[in-house]
Amino acid sequence: MTDDAVYRALVPPVPPGVARPLWSVMIPTFNCAGYLCDALRGALAQDPGPDAMQVEVIDDHSADDPQAVVQDFGRGRVTFYRQPRNVGITQNFHECIARARGRLVHLLHGDDYVLDGFYARMEQAFASRPEIGAAFCRHFFVNARGDKLAVSDLEQPVSGILDNWLERLASEQRIMTPSIVVRREVYETLGAFDSRLICAEDWEMWVRIASRYPVWYEVAPLAAYRMHENSNTGRHERTAENIRYTRLAIEMFTAYLPPDRADRISRRARETYALSAIDGARSLWSRHNRAGAVAHLREALKLSHSLKVIAALARSFLWRPAVAPE
After folding, report:
1. Buried b vs exposed e over 53-79: b needs ≥16 C-beta within 10 Å?
2. Domain ranges, ordered by start, for the chain
3. Tens of pLDDT along 33-57?
4. Do 75 and 46 contact (CB within 8 A), yes or no?
5. Closest Cα partner for 226 from 116, 318, 148, 322?
6. pTM, whole model, 2 decimals?
7. What is the 3-state secondary structure (H, E, C) of the chain?
8. Pick the CATH number of 4-226 from 1.10.260.40, 3.90.550.10, 3.30.390.30, 3.30.420.40
9. Interatomic CA distance for residues 174 and 43, integer angstroms
10. 24 CB contacts (<8 Å, ≥6 apart)?
11. Do residues 26 and 98 lie in contact, with contact meaning Cβ atoms separated by under 8 Å?
């Protein structure tokens, strides 16, 4: 067993004789019951029936009551599993994958949702190109109320398998979890999400997949990623933990990259997120989170000392008192 494998739970195949739908829509939740009806509504509006789609909510021992939402909105169509204790995001994701019986697994965060046509377009992609390991679509960024804020950049003008995708994805996270579907057998081959990461765990997984399989891109924006302060990313942003885990993810997946380009790609990713950390520091400072702002600036320096980063840091002293980095 490799050192990395220690941190990636095995995903056993579905036992023989178990009914296999095409789809497993697995909805991990943690203290997001107020948004769960949107996730369920988007999936159930496209429901082809229980023989073709498993829909299950897997709750990480929330303080709110997602089971009541499932009972009220799912009306017997959606199953529910509650962790006996809080296990954290990566272990809850593993529970989702392990419980999935379908050939295609869609991890749909309980605070995100999909739009009409998502499952039909994804199904067409996998049917037309059986060699792909995953398929994803363009996505909207939405706020807590569900208002559309922006749409992700267009990766290519037409739907199809992406060229040079590993390098592009390793340079910058470009896939939000509700927008991607993965063959279950890919998880069986590569293992589950890495338990060392509680942020950027999705980026590391998508790069891991892209290093081994072709990936399909759907140009239509058919998923919505909700941005709010109580999301997993939002909680960790306040202390710069999101940036620290991003740095760790880059260190981990550099080993998956072509050796002749790995250092260059890694430097580009580190610079991108150093600049992002500086932007995060500005935002936190404006919200009077001084400690969080300083933590972001320190993480920026741990990521990169490029000229762009040093210049951005120098400009940062125009809007805050000087803080000596660690």
Report:
1. bbbbbbbbebeeebbebbeebbeeebe
2. 4-226, 234-316
3. 999 999 999 999 999 999 999 999 9
4. no
5. 148
6. 0.93
7. CCCHHHHCCCCCCCCCCCCCCCEEEEEEECCCHHHHHHHHHHHHCCCCCCCCEEEEEEECCCCCCHHHHHHHHHCCCCEEEECCCCCCHHHHHHHHHHHCCCCEEEECCCCCEECCCHHHHHHHHHHHCCCCCEEEEEEEEECCCCCEEEECCCCCCCCEECCCHHHHHHHCCCCCHHHEEEEHHHHHHHCCCCCCCCCCHHHHHHHHHHCCCCEEEEEEEEEEEECCCCCHHHHHHCCCHHHHHHHHHHHHHHHHCCCCCHHHHHHHHHHHHHHHHHHHHHHHHHCCCHHHHHHHHHHHHHHCCCHHHHHHHHHHCCCCCCCCCC
8. 3.90.550.10
9. 23
10. 53, 54, 56, 99, 100, 101, 102, 104, 105, 106, 184
11. no
Structure tokens at 241: 């933990």
Q: Which amino acid is at 259?
A: P
- Read off the tokens for 52: 């073709």
Query: Rounded to whole angstroms, how far apart are CA atoms 5 and 132?
Result: 23
- Rounded distance between C-alpha atoms, residue 309 and residue 281, angstroms: 13
**Token reading at 185:** 């057998």
* pLDDT per position as a tens digit, 181-230: 999 999 999 999 999 999 999 999 999 999 999 999 999 999 999 987 76
Q: Which two tokens stand for residue 36?
A: 């769960």
